[in-house]
Specification:
Helix content is 36%, strand content 16%. The protein is of the alpha/beta class. A hairpin with a 2-residue loop joins strand 9 and strand 10. Bound molecules: zinc ion (ZN).
């Protein structure tokens, strides 16, 4: 049986998923879910911790300088998963820098400092940094950026409304996920994407092509990992030029018992854990 898979899709918008008729989100169920913060840093950390009572208030520089070892009492969802006896892989999820020790592996997601791809354990990191490129699908002024492409290059593609570069990132990212999965299979895999949010912040205008690629990203993860259960979650929606509260909570291969109750990001951790029961 395949792993339980959680896809974290930054800025994936509930309304746009429906409007674009996502082909790879047809076999499961959407749940009532809103983003209370509508903000990447606080929303993801609430999802990971299951509470909005945490010290992270935003600010990318602060995030890059923080250290997990300074906050040993915060129960991240990956610690809970390990404690239940499951191994875990975390691949490109937002706000997972620096990579941390766990039973499994971590490839940090946005934001990261530039240079080497940050990875736990270090021998997997040596392999990745020797054999892989373009592990990121995101852009910042100083990191989390595909090493073979200049920031200017990205702008040109976005300004033209094109999606070819994002598509190339996706292809590379999936190729790399497949390699890591074959090297170190685990019980639970988190896979993160940030390109929807970032492309829109940079002025990408072609929603249809962007959501086509988002749809492909989900299909690709399914074909690489063959999940037994799949949960897709976003930190907020994004429509027009700004974040919306219309985040996505979607499950395939399982049913969440929420009734009509609307979930917020602080409530999601228990839903992720319930997929392991
Ligand atoms: Zn976000």
């Amino acid at each position: 049986m395949g792993p339980v898979v959680v896809i974290g899709h930054d800025g994936l918008d509930y309304n746009l998923c429906h409007k674009m008729e996502m082909e790879n989100m047809r076999d499961g169920e959407y749940y009532p879910y809103k983003s209370g913060y509508m903000e990447t840093v606080r929303s993801w950390t609430s999802i990971y911790l299951g509470t909005n009572r945490h010290p992270f208030t935003g600010g990318w520089d602060n995030w890059l300088n923080h250290n997990y070892s300074d906050e040993p009492d915060l129960p991240y969802v990956w610690n809970d998963i390990n404690n239940r006896g499951y191994s875990i892989g975390v691949y490109g999820m937002p706000l997972t820098y620096p990579p941390f020790e766990l039973n499994g592996w971590v490839v940090s997601g946005f934001p990261c400092p530039g240079g080497k791809v940050p990875v736990y354990p270090s021998d997997l990191g040596l392999y990745i940094n020797r054999h892989m490129t373009d592990i990121f699908d995101t852009v910042t002024s100083d990191g989390s950026f595909p090493r073979t492409v200049s920031r200017r290059h990205w702008y040109i593609y976005v300004e033209k409304g094109g999606s070819r570069l994002i598509l190339e990132f996706l292809l590379n990212k999936m190729k790399n996920l497949k390699t890591i999965w074959n090297l170190m299979p685990v019980d639970v895999v988190f896979v993160g994407f940030s390109f929807v949010d970032h492309a829109l912040h940079l002025g990408h205008k072609n929603i249809q092509s962007l959501y086509k690629i988002a749809d492909m990203s989900i299909g690709d993860v399914k074909s690489v990992l063959s999940p037994s259960k799949l949960l897709i979650v976003s930190d907020h929606g994004f429509e027009g030029e700004s974040h919306t509260p219309n985040a996505v909570l979607y499950v395939e291969g399982a049913h969440l018992d929420l009734g009509e109750q609307t979930r917020y990001e602080k409530d999601i951790k228990r839903d992720i854990l319930s997929l392991l029961e």
